[in-house]
Amino acid sequence: MACACPCLMIMRIKKENIMVRYLISIVILLGGIIGSTLPVGNTPGLYIDWHSLVIAVVLPFLFVGILLGFRKTGMVFSAPFKKNIEAKQLLFAYSILKIYGWVICIVSIIDVLIGLITVFSNTNNIDAISRNIAVISLTPLYGAIINIVLVVPFMILVREKLRKI
Question: Could you tell me which residue, 19 or 40, shows the higher pLDDT?
Fold first, then answer.
């Protein structure tokens, strides 16, 4: 008898096929995020701000890349898929991912504080305040999404690879 519950079907996927599990979890997560914005009746463009995206994603990657070297930082995303890799390299990849996750959080907090200072310095227009606070909240949103979609799954992949060694 076939299983009708998608959750049980996902659990039956072999542990070795971690990429399938990763992709399914990302689809479910993004579906939930997108689904939570639809009932509000807002347009998707409301959730797009390139400045916030650059601050939350690109700036932390550049910081970690410059600090630790771009070659080593780029190795992080290929480490879980390499056949012959040493535990030392995997531990280094794990630590870079951890640092990247923390830098995303810290940069998001700094951007929110800078935005709040800007908003509160100009309190004459109430409509502008509400729009600016909405834009300010996008940086931590993007940072959280990048952490959940990219950093945490790769940390899990690296840790699973470490267990096999």
Answer: 19
- What integer best gives the mean pLDDT of the chain? 82
Q: How far apart are CA 23 and CA 92, in angstroms?
A: 24
Q: DSSP labels for 59-116?
A: HHHHHHHHHH-HHHHHHTTTGGG-SS--HHHHHHHHHHHHHHHHHHHHHHHHHHHHHH
Among residues 98, 116, 105, which one has the least CA distance to residue 57? 105
Residue 158 has pLDDT above 70, yes or no: yes
Give domain limits for the chain: 1-42, 48-164
Pick from 47, 134, 51, 147: nearest CA to 105: 147
At CA 38, angle to CA 46 and CA 28, rounded to 5?
A: 105
